Automatic annotation (TrEMBL):
Subunit structure: Homotetramer.
Keyword Nucleus (UniProt): no
Organism: Haliscomenobacter hydrossis (strain ATCC 27775 / DSM 1100 / LMG 10767 / O)
Keyword Lyase tagged: yes
Gene label: tnaA
Family classification: Belongs to the beta-eliminating lyase family.
Stated name of the protein: Tryptophanase
PANTHER family: BETA-ELIMINATING LYASE-LIKE PROTEIN-RELATED, TRYPTOPHANASE
Reaction(s) this enzyme catalyzes, per UniProt: L-tryptophan + H2O = indole + pyruvate + NH4(+)
EC number from the UniProt entry: 4.1.99.1
Length: 454
């Protein structure tokens, strides 16, 4: 069969409020042309993020009911710990309320002034936590990872030669090496097993622990199965286990590949660091058997982890993201290729060449997507990265719009509707004007800035 159906049926639904283009124009104007300032019930298709937006299964909701809310020693923690260890065999598993809380704890222990944390590409919160500790966050992505049209199958790979040069020069300053699976900042691109092994070998040579930022580990494992010949006949679960066998620790946002709306953890083998982490956890998150979560959240994660490695799910997940990407390409819309796991990234600089970078072409496209189709997405370009610490403004390397797809939420007809909206966007794109910022906060301006047309 050619059609890959959603491998689930729907038991509980959330209505979508239908709006007209005229109504959406007014709503967008009232939100100062910033999608973060829209009310989500005015959005028809929400591609703002794949984080915390998954639909939970009946089994997860049943787990929620079973959650034990004891302060200490809850059996829900036991089930959570066993489910994590089934895939990721770490000694110490420490629950947190989301990924950035795990990062904060980790870098409070290993970061600090003078330290350097290399990664294939740090996600914003990871970079922010590294820098907040006083350390330097370094991206050592392969060059193909920065070229939107390169078809390299593993554009999330780390440049092993650059890592060697760093470790030779700065051996004392590097407390650990990180790999982000998949690389969100660069288009949801995977890291190959070969690259993981090469990075691990280098870490061993220099006596450095290897940590994974593991938010989308299952999508990464499925790409290894699809694209790395040696792994075609391996189960995703065994690929996941092999990936993590090369790691000494991990941070996790369960809001992605654990199919829940909140949660995360820090896991590691180093007993000394684990002790320090638990001490910090008690101050900031909670007792080590619940972290920042309720017992019921731990149950939902435990079930989610068994569902995320199901291959029917992953085939549907990766294929449906590709389906959207391929349809946009057919309409002549330039996207980051190959299509990543959790999102399609449109190259707005190439799509709207008449809008200069500092008139925010990706923001203009985000506004058009909402007005034309009620679709919400996120700018990843000069609005997000353009403001420099000295107050000046510089165009970002890329002007992207991310269409992040929530897990198990939308059906193929929702996606077909999105594709139809893009036909209109293509027809009208030459009339689209640039934008200007009329008000902005001193930092992280994309969340709250106010815009107008040029
Ligand atoms: N690492 C990566 C690669 C991420 O994508 C995120 C979150 C985090 C860490 C932090 O996790 O949100 O649970 O604290 N990414 C979301 C996104 C916000 O929209 O891409 P968190």
């Amino acid at each position: 069969m050619k059609t890959i159906i959603e491998p689930f049926r729907i038991k509980s639904v959330e209505p979508i409020r239908m709006t007209s283009r005229e109504e959406r124009k007014l709503l967008m104007r009232a939100a100062h042309y910033n999608p973060f300032l829209l009310h989500s019930d005015d959005v028809m298709i929400d591609f703002l993020t794949d984080s915390g937006t998954s639909a939970m299964s009946a089994a997860q909701w049943a787990g929620i009911m079973r959650g034990d809310e004891s302060y200490a020693g809850s059996p829900s923690f036991g089930r959570f710990e066993a489910a994590v260890r089934e895939l990721m065999p770490f000694e110490h598993i420490i629950p947190t309320h989301q990924g950035r809380a795990a990062e904060k704890i980790l870098f409070s222990i290993v970061g600090g002034k003078g330290k350097i944390i290399p990664n294939n590409a740090h996600f914003d919160t990871t970079r922010a936590n590294v820098e907040y500790s006083g350390a330097t966050a370094l991206d050592l992505l392969i060059v193909e990872g920065r070229n939107p049209s390169s078809l390299h199958p593993f554009k999330g790979n780390m440049d092993v030669q650059k890592l060697r040069t760093l470790l030779e020069a700065e051996h004392q300053s590097v407390p650990l090496v990180m790999l982000t699976l998949t690389n969100n900042s660069g288009g949801g691109q995977p890291v190959s097993m070969e690259n993981i092994k090469a990075v691990k070998a280098l870490c061993q040579e220099f006596g450095k622990p290897l940590f994974f930022d593991s938010c989308r580990f299952a999508e990464n494992a499925y790409f290894i199965k699809l694209r790395e010949p040696d792994y075609q006949h391996h189960s995703v679960k065994s690929i996941v286990r092999e990936m993590f066998s090369y790691a000494d620790g991990m941070t996790m946002s369960a809001k992605k590949d654990a199919l829940v709306n909140i949660g995360g953890w820090l896991a590691l083998n180093n007993a000394d660091w684990a002790q320090q982490a638990r001490n910090l956890l008690i101050i900031t998150e909670g007792f080590p058997t619940y972290g920042g979560l309720a017992g019921r959240d731990l149950e939902a994660i435990a079930v989610g982890l068994s569902e995320i490695v199901e291959e029917d799910y992953l085939q549907y997940r990766i294929r449906s993201t590709q389906y959207l990407g391929e349809a946009l390409l057919k309409l002549g819309i330039p996207i980051v290729q190959p299509v990543g796991g959790h999102a399609v990234y449109i190259d707005a600089k190439a799509f709207l060449p008449h809008i200069p970078a500092l008139q925010y072409p990706a923001q203009a496209l985000v506004v058009a997507m909402y007005e034309i189709g009620g679709i919400r997405a996120c700018e990843i370009g000069s609005v997000m990265f353009g403001r420099q610490t000295d107050g000046s403004e510089k165009a970002a390397a890329m002007e992207l719009v991310r269409l992040a797809i929530p897990r198990r939420v939308y059906t193929q007809s929702h996606i077909d509707y999105v594709i139809e909206c893009f036909e209109t966007i293509v027809a009208e794109k030459d009339q689209l004007r640039g934008m200007k910022i009329v008000e902005e906060p001193p930092t992280l301006r994309h969340f709250t800035a106010k815009f107008d047309w040029v």
